[in-house]
Amino acid sequence: MQTNIARSLLNLKKNLSNLKKSQKIGLVPTMGCIHNGHLELIKKCKKLKYFTVVSIFVNPAQFNNQKDLKKYPSQEKKDIEILKKNDVDLVFFPKTKQMYPLGYSTYIKEINFSDILCGKYRKNHFSGVLTIVLKLFLIVKPYAAFFGEKDFQQLFLIKKMVKDFNLGVKIIGIPTVRDSNGLALSSRNKLLNARGLEIAKQIYLNIKKIRNLDYKYTKDLELYLKKELKKSGLNNIEYIEIRETNSLKHPKSIIRGKTLRIFIAVHVEGVRLIDNCKLN
Ligand code: AMP
After folding, report:
1. Which of 142, 185, 205, 254 is most buried (most C-beta within 10 Å)?
2. Which tens digits make up the pLDDT trace of 183-227?
3. Burial class (CB in 10 A: 0-12, 13-18, 19+), 70
Protein backbone atom coordinates (compact mmCIF):
# COMPACT_ATOMS: atom_id res chain seq x y z
CA MET A 1 0.00 0.00 0.00
CA GLN A 2 1.17 3.50 -0.75
CA THR A 3 1.97 6.14 1.86
CA ASN A 4 1.21 9.61 0.58
CA ILE A 5 2.76 12.75 1.98
CA ALA A 6 1.00 16.10 2.20
CA ARG A 7 2.90 19.26 3.00
CA SER A 8 0.16 21.81 2.46
CA LEU A 9 -3.52 22.18 3.31
CA LEU A 10 -4.41 22.02 -0.37
CA ASN A 11 -2.47 18.82 -0.86
CA LEU A 12 -4.02 17.28 2.24
CA LYS A 13 -7.51 18.10 0.98
CA LYS A 14 -6.70 16.60 -2.43
CA ASN A 15 -5.55 13.38 -0.77
CA LEU A 16 -8.66 13.15 1.39
CA SER A 17 -11.09 14.05 -1.40
CA ASN A 18 -10.32 10.78 -3.18
CA LEU A 19 -11.64 8.71 -0.29
CA LYS A 20 -14.91 6.81 -0.52
CA LYS A 21 -17.68 8.30 1.62
CA SER A 22 -17.82 5.10 3.68
CA GLN A 23 -14.09 5.20 4.50
CA LYS A 24 -13.56 6.40 8.07
CA ILE A 25 -10.51 8.52 8.81
CA GLY A 26 -8.34 7.90 11.87
CA LEU A 27 -5.98 10.68 12.93
CA VAL A 28 -2.79 10.24 14.96
CA PRO A 29 -1.37 13.66 15.85
CA THR A 30 2.34 13.63 16.73
CA MET A 31 5.35 15.91 16.97
CA GLY A 32 7.49 13.38 15.12
CA CYS A 33 10.63 11.45 16.05
CA ILE A 34 8.42 8.41 15.74
CA HIS A 35 8.95 5.67 18.32
CA ASN A 36 7.11 2.52 19.42
CA GLY A 37 4.75 4.58 21.58
CA HIS A 38 3.49 6.42 18.50
CA LEU A 39 3.39 3.12 16.61
CA GLU A 40 0.95 1.62 19.13
CA LEU A 41 -1.48 4.43 18.31
CA ILE A 42 -0.96 3.86 14.60
CA LYS A 43 -1.36 0.08 14.90
CA LYS A 44 -4.65 0.51 16.74
CA CYS A 45 -5.88 2.91 14.05
CA LYS A 46 -4.88 0.47 11.29
CA LYS A 47 -6.47 -2.44 13.15
CA LEU A 48 -9.77 -0.58 13.18
CA LYS A 49 -9.40 -0.26 9.39
CA TYR A 50 -9.47 3.50 9.37
CA PHE A 51 -7.70 5.49 6.67
CA THR A 52 -4.71 6.36 8.84
CA VAL A 53 -3.47 9.94 8.82
CA VAL A 54 -0.40 10.75 10.93
CA SER A 55 0.38 14.41 11.42
CA ILE A 56 3.88 15.54 12.32
CA PHE A 57 4.03 19.07 13.61
CA VAL A 58 6.14 20.56 16.40
CA ASN A 59 3.48 22.99 17.48
CA PRO A 60 5.10 26.26 18.65
CA ALA A 61 1.91 27.34 20.45
CA GLN A 62 2.30 24.63 23.08
CA PHE A 63 5.89 25.50 24.02
CA ASN A 64 6.17 27.98 26.86
CA ASN A 65 9.94 27.82 26.60
CA GLN A 66 11.68 28.77 23.33
CA LYS A 67 14.82 26.81 24.25
CA ASP A 68 12.72 23.67 24.67
CA LEU A 69 11.11 24.25 21.25
CA LYS A 70 14.48 24.79 19.56
CA LYS A 71 16.02 21.62 20.89
CA TYR A 72 12.96 19.41 20.26
CA PRO A 73 14.34 16.47 18.22
CA SER A 74 13.35 15.87 14.63
CA GLN A 75 14.18 13.12 12.09
CA GLU A 76 11.87 13.64 9.15
CA LYS A 77 13.47 11.20 6.73
CA LYS A 78 13.56 8.39 9.24
CA ASP A 79 9.98 9.12 10.33
CA ILE A 80 8.75 8.78 6.75
CA GLU A 81 10.58 5.47 6.41
CA ILE A 82 9.05 4.11 9.62
CA LEU A 83 5.57 5.31 8.71
CA LYS A 84 5.86 3.76 5.23
CA LYS A 85 6.91 0.47 6.80
CA ASN A 86 3.84 0.63 9.01
CA ASP A 87 1.50 1.22 6.08
CA VAL A 88 0.31 4.63 7.18
CA ASP A 89 -1.98 5.96 4.45
CA LEU A 90 -1.14 9.64 4.69
CA VAL A 91 1.50 11.66 6.51
CA PHE A 92 0.67 15.31 7.00
CA PHE A 93 3.45 17.84 7.67
CA PRO A 94 1.61 21.09 8.38
CA LYS A 95 3.61 24.26 7.87
CA THR A 96 3.74 26.74 10.73
CA LYS A 97 2.90 29.53 8.29
CA GLN A 98 -0.29 27.73 7.26
CA MET A 99 -1.34 26.77 10.76
CA TYR A 100 -0.58 30.16 12.27
CA PRO A 101 -0.49 32.70 9.45
CA LEU A 102 0.51 36.28 10.18
CA GLY A 103 -2.14 37.87 12.38
CA TYR A 104 -3.37 34.56 13.81
CA SER A 105 -5.07 35.27 17.16
CA THR A 106 -7.64 32.62 18.13
CA TYR A 107 -6.84 30.10 20.87
CA ILE A 108 -8.86 27.59 22.88
CA LYS A 109 -8.93 28.06 26.65
CA GLU A 110 -10.16 25.35 29.00
CA ILE A 111 -10.71 26.87 32.43
CA ASN A 112 -10.82 24.09 35.05
CA PHE A 113 -8.08 21.57 34.36
CA SER A 114 -5.45 23.46 32.39
CA ASP A 115 -3.58 25.10 35.25
CA ILE A 116 -2.97 22.00 37.35
CA LEU A 117 -0.21 19.36 36.99
CA CYS A 118 1.79 20.18 33.81
CA GLY A 119 -0.31 23.30 33.20
CA LYS A 120 0.87 24.81 36.47
CA TYR A 121 4.45 24.82 35.20
CA ARG A 122 3.84 25.31 31.47
CA LYS A 123 1.77 28.44 31.04
CA ASN A 124 -0.63 28.24 28.08
CA HIS A 125 0.69 24.80 27.15
CA PHE A 126 -2.74 23.19 27.01
CA SER A 127 -4.25 26.15 25.21
CA GLY A 128 -1.66 25.50 22.48
CA VAL A 129 -2.39 21.77 22.50
CA LEU A 130 -6.17 22.16 22.30
CA THR A 131 -5.88 24.81 19.61
CA ILE A 132 -3.75 22.66 17.30
CA VAL A 133 -5.83 19.53 17.95
CA LEU A 134 -9.04 21.40 17.15
CA LYS A 135 -7.47 22.80 13.98
CA LEU A 136 -6.34 19.32 12.93
CA PHE A 137 -9.83 17.93 13.60
CA LEU A 138 -11.40 20.67 11.49
CA ILE A 139 -8.91 20.16 8.66
CA VAL A 140 -8.70 16.35 8.58
CA LYS A 141 -12.27 15.67 9.78
CA PRO A 142 -11.43 12.33 11.39
CA TYR A 143 -13.99 9.81 12.63
CA ALA A 144 -11.57 8.87 15.40
CA ALA A 145 -8.33 10.24 16.86
CA PHE A 146 -5.70 8.44 18.91
CA PHE A 147 -3.79 9.77 21.92
CA GLY A 148 -1.46 8.19 24.47
CA GLU A 149 -2.15 7.83 28.18
CA LYS A 150 1.46 8.86 28.68
CA ASP A 151 0.17 12.43 28.31
CA PHE A 152 -2.81 11.71 30.52
CA GLN A 153 -3.81 15.31 31.24
CA GLN A 154 -3.67 16.05 27.51
CA LEU A 155 -5.91 13.05 26.75
CA PHE A 156 -8.30 14.18 29.51
CA LEU A 157 -8.48 17.73 28.13
CA ILE A 158 -8.98 16.59 24.55
CA LYS A 159 -11.88 14.34 25.62
CA LYS A 160 -13.31 17.33 27.48
CA MET A 161 -12.96 19.64 24.48
CA VAL A 162 -14.65 17.09 22.19
CA LYS A 163 -17.55 16.83 24.65
CA ASP A 164 -17.82 20.57 25.36
CA PHE A 165 -17.73 21.52 21.68
CA ASN A 166 -19.85 18.56 20.43
CA LEU A 167 -17.08 17.72 17.99
CA GLY A 168 -18.26 14.15 17.49
CA VAL A 169 -14.75 12.75 17.10
CA LYS A 170 -14.18 9.40 18.82
CA ILE A 171 -11.17 9.71 21.12
CA ILE A 172 -9.22 6.52 21.69
CA GLY A 173 -6.65 6.43 24.52
CA ILE A 174 -3.74 4.01 24.30
CA PRO A 175 -1.79 2.72 27.35
CA THR A 176 1.76 3.96 27.83
CA VAL A 177 4.44 2.03 25.97
CA ARG A 178 7.63 1.54 28.00
CA ASP A 179 11.12 0.26 27.27
CA SER A 180 12.50 -2.88 28.92
CA ASN A 181 13.41 -0.84 32.02
CA GLY A 182 9.93 0.62 32.31
CA LEU A 183 10.93 4.08 31.09
CA ALA A 184 7.99 5.61 29.20
CA LEU A 185 9.00 6.04 25.55
CA SER A 186 9.26 9.67 24.55
CA SER A 187 10.90 11.59 21.72
CA ARG A 188 12.63 13.61 24.42
CA ASN A 189 14.49 10.49 25.63
CA LYS A 190 16.69 10.98 22.55
CA LEU A 191 18.12 14.09 24.20
CA LEU A 192 19.48 12.08 27.14
CA ASN A 193 22.91 10.49 27.32
CA ALA A 194 23.58 7.08 28.89
CA ARG A 195 23.82 8.52 32.40
CA GLY A 196 20.60 10.51 31.92
CA LEU A 197 18.78 7.41 30.70
CA GLU A 198 20.03 5.50 33.72
CA ILE A 199 18.60 8.18 36.03
CA ALA A 200 15.37 8.48 34.01
CA LYS A 201 14.58 4.81 34.38
CA GLN A 202 14.40 5.35 38.15
CA ILE A 203 11.09 7.20 37.65
CA TYR A 204 9.05 4.12 36.86
CA LEU A 205 11.10 1.76 39.03
CA ASN A 206 10.24 3.94 42.03
CA ILE A 207 6.58 4.34 41.08
CA LYS A 208 6.31 0.57 40.90
CA LYS A 209 7.86 0.24 44.37
CA ILE A 210 5.42 2.61 46.05
CA ARG A 211 2.23 1.64 44.18
CA ASN A 212 1.10 -0.87 46.81
CA LEU A 213 2.30 0.87 49.96
CA ASP A 214 -0.34 1.26 52.61
CA TYR A 215 -0.38 5.03 53.14
CA LYS A 216 -3.45 6.83 54.48
CA TYR A 217 -2.82 10.33 53.13
CA THR A 218 -1.86 11.24 49.59
CA LYS A 219 0.53 13.97 50.79
CA ASP A 220 2.54 11.42 52.79
CA LEU A 221 2.86 9.03 49.85
CA GLU A 222 3.79 11.89 47.53
CA LEU A 223 6.48 12.99 49.97
CA TYR A 224 7.78 9.45 50.37
CA LEU A 225 8.07 9.00 46.60
CA LYS A 226 9.82 12.36 46.32
CA LYS A 227 12.43 11.24 48.85
CA GLU A 228 12.92 7.91 47.10
CA LEU A 229 13.34 9.59 43.71
CA LYS A 230 15.89 11.99 45.16
CA LYS A 231 17.83 9.08 46.62
CA SER A 232 17.87 7.54 43.12
CA GLY A 233 19.48 10.64 41.64
CA LEU A 234 16.38 12.50 40.47
CA ASN A 235 16.93 15.79 42.22
CA ASN A 236 15.03 18.13 39.92
CA ILE A 237 11.42 17.12 40.53
CA GLU A 238 8.77 19.48 39.20
CA TYR A 239 5.76 17.77 40.74
CA ILE A 240 4.49 14.50 42.16
CA GLU A 241 0.75 14.38 42.63
CA ILE A 242 -1.85 11.72 43.22
CA ARG A 243 -5.13 12.49 41.49
CA GLU A 244 -8.40 10.75 40.71
CA THR A 245 -8.36 9.27 37.21
CA ASN A 246 -11.85 10.39 36.24
CA SER A 247 -11.93 13.87 37.73
CA LEU A 248 -8.27 14.82 38.18
CA LYS A 249 -9.27 15.90 41.70
CA HIS A 250 -6.61 15.78 44.37
CA PRO A 251 -7.98 13.64 47.24
CA LYS A 252 -6.72 14.04 50.80
CA SER A 253 -6.83 10.35 51.64
CA ILE A 254 -5.97 7.29 49.68
CA ILE A 255 -9.25 5.40 49.45
CA ARG A 256 -8.73 1.96 47.97
CA GLY A 257 -11.15 1.14 45.20
CA LYS A 258 -11.14 4.71 43.93
CA THR A 259 -9.03 4.80 40.81
CA LEU A 260 -6.12 6.97 41.71
CA ARG A 261 -3.17 7.86 39.49
CA ILE A 262 0.20 9.19 40.33
CA PHE A 263 1.52 11.96 38.09
CA ILE A 264 5.15 12.97 37.86
CA ALA A 265 7.25 15.55 36.04
CA VAL A 266 11.02 15.72 36.45
CA HIS A 267 13.97 17.32 34.73
CA VAL A 268 16.94 15.13 33.83
CA GLU A 269 19.94 16.81 32.21
CA GLY A 270 17.69 19.75 31.36
CA VAL A 271 15.15 17.48 29.64
CA ARG A 272 11.60 17.53 30.98
CA LEU A 273 10.10 14.06 31.38
CA ILE A 274 6.59 13.11 32.50
CA ASP A 275 4.96 9.88 33.52
CA ASN A 276 1.79 8.67 35.20
CA CYS A 277 0.55 5.36 36.44
CA LYS A 278 -2.43 3.80 38.23
CA LEU A 279 -2.05 3.43 41.98
CA ASN A 280 -3.19 0.01 43.18
P1 AMP B 1 4.19 13.44 20.85
O2 AMP B 1 4.81 13.22 19.52
O3 AMP B 1 5.11 13.24 22.00
O4 AMP B 1 3.39 14.71 20.92
O5 AMP B 1 3.11 12.27 21.01
C6 AMP B 1 2.13 12.05 20.06
C7 AMP B 1 1.11 11.09 20.64
O8 AMP B 1 1.75 9.87 21.00
C9 AMP B 1 0.44 11.63 21.92
O10 AMP B 1 -0.92 11.27 21.93
C11 AMP B 1 1.20 10.92 23.00
O12 AMP B 1 0.48 10.76 24.20
C13 AMP B 1 1.47 9.58 22.35
N14 AMP B 1 2.63 8.93 22.98
C15 AMP B 1 3.87 9.46 23.14
N16 AMP B 1 4.66 8.61 23.82
C17 AMP B 1 3.90 7.53 24.10
C18 AMP B 1 4.12 6.30 24.80
N19 AMP B 1 5.30 6.00 25.36
N20 AMP B 1 3.10 5.43 24.90
C21 AMP B 1 1.89 5.70 24.35
N22 AMP B 1 1.61 6.84 23.69
C23 AMP B 1 2.59 7.73 23.57
Report:
1. 142
2. 999 999 999 999 999 999 999 999 999 998 999 999 999 999 999
3. exposed
Contact partners, residue 137, CB within 8 Å, separation at least 6:
27, 145, 167, 169
Mutate to test the pocket of ligand 1, among 30, 159, 183 (most ligand atoms within 8 A of CB): 30
pLDDT of residue 256: 78
pLDDT confidence bin for 258, thresholds 50/70/90: confident
If asked whether residues 103 and 129 sit together in one domain, one would say yes
Does 168 share its domain with 222?
no
Structural contact between residues 32 and 187, judged by C-beta atoms closer than 8 angstroms: yes
Please indicate, yes or no, whether residues 115 and 202 belong to a single structural domain of this protein: no
- Average pLDDT in the chain: 97
Which amino acid type is present at position 212? N
Tens digit of pLDDT for each residue in 98-117?
Answer: 999 999 999 999 999 999 99
Helix (H) or strand (E) holding 259: none
Q: How far is the CA of 252 from the centre of ligand 1 (A)?
A: 30
Q: Are 237 and 121 in contact (CB under 8 A)?
A: no
Q: Is residue 180 in some structural domain?
A: no
Reported pTM: 0.98
Which of 141, 174, 207 is a domain's end point? 174
221: domain CATH number is 3.30.1300.10
CA 39 to chain centre: 13
Is residue 25 located within the same domain as residue 133?
A: yes
In the predicted structure, residue 28 carries a pLDDT above the cut 80: yes
Q: What range does the domain containing 234 cover?
A: 187-278
Please indicate whether residue 191, judged by its CB atom, sits closer than 6 Å to ligand 1: no
CATH number of domain containing 68: 3.40.50.620
State whether 234 and 147 are in the same domain: no
The amino acid at residue 169 is V
Residue 207 counted as domain residue: yes
